[in-house]
Amino acid sequence: MADTPFILQEHQFERLKSVLARLCVECAARVVFLIDRDGQPIAFHGEIGDMDTTSFSSLAAGNVAATSSMAKLIGEDVFPCVVHEGEHESIYISIIGRSLLVVVFDERSTLSLVKIRSKRGSFEVANILDEAKTDSDNFRVNQNSFFSEITDEDIDSLFS
Amino acid sequence: MTFINYASREINCKIVYYGPGLCGKTTNLQYIYDSTAPQAKGKLISLATETDRTLFFDFMPLELGTVRGFKTRFHLYTVPGQVYYDASRKLILKGVDGVVFVADSQEERMDANIESLYNLEENLGSQGYNLAEIPYVLQLNKRDLPNVTPIEELSQELLKKGEPVFEAVATNGTGVFDTLKAVAKQVLTELRKG
User: Fold this and answer.
1) Between chain A and chain B, how many beta carbons pairs sit less than 8 Å apart?
2) What number is the ipTM of this complex?
3) pTM of the model
4) Residues of B in Cβ contact (< 8 Å) with A39
5) Domains in chain A, start-ordered, CATH in brackets?
6) SS3 sequence, A31-89?
């Protein structure tokens, strides 16, 4: 069967958002994203303008998946971070377990600053996600009532 | 892996369209994209070669509506069909919640279908999944062409577990939404089971 669902509770989401908000300031970043390694956006903070955050998340995950496989081909276990430097905008992606922390920054910041500050923030993010994972598993086992209440009619109504 | 966010009240699921090269995976996505209201979809991203063959993946997010107050969003992916892009196919299967196998009904593509299906089982296995247990739909595409294999023969060769089978002509949309609906329904039913 497919993997078990990952459930993020509201209080965990708010804590993640506040870590991202702080990181965004500390890194002098334009925007900071937290993305699942399968490409699902989890949370973000900063200026997104008209950026398509769903597509961005999917591409970031594909990018990391590809570079991680390249790492294995040359005998590295993993590349813990991926950097793309542009003329004005740059992207720094670091792997946190099953998630990716993505910092988008411009000339107002520097790669070294982003690296140092991201590293510190990533521990907090990892702790919250670990907690969410444990809660998620317990929630599924102990209280599956919400999803078990979904009826065939509910599902059919999506396609009407 | 289905991702459920209680704060934004969203359920996100990943569906992958698999199949041999030029079977119509991208055409399925393109049709869904063209036929869906703008507010229900994101951009269709295609990482393709200069000749429009899928290089890494195509991707589009699709919002179907709400179930019990939760927005259901399906992330639709295709894989590159050509044999030598196997490494990419493995990556795209990570975290998959449901699979659509798009078979090319043309007689001369039977071997390619069988090979691709075998490759799907192998690649799912390498990611820790089992085709027998994952939401799965078989689509028999290109039914409008003159040189197609009869349905019975295709089913005999390609049917794996009594999965739903749909005849399709992805270029004009026949069977495209039926296929999507069937796999999405299975994914949500799995979620209900826990």
Assistant:
1) 129
2) 0.83
3) 0.91
4) 14, 59, 75, 95
5) 15-124 (3.30.450.30)
6) EEEEEECCCCEEEEEECCCCCCHHHHHHHHHHHHHHHHHHHHHCCCCCCCEEEEECCCC
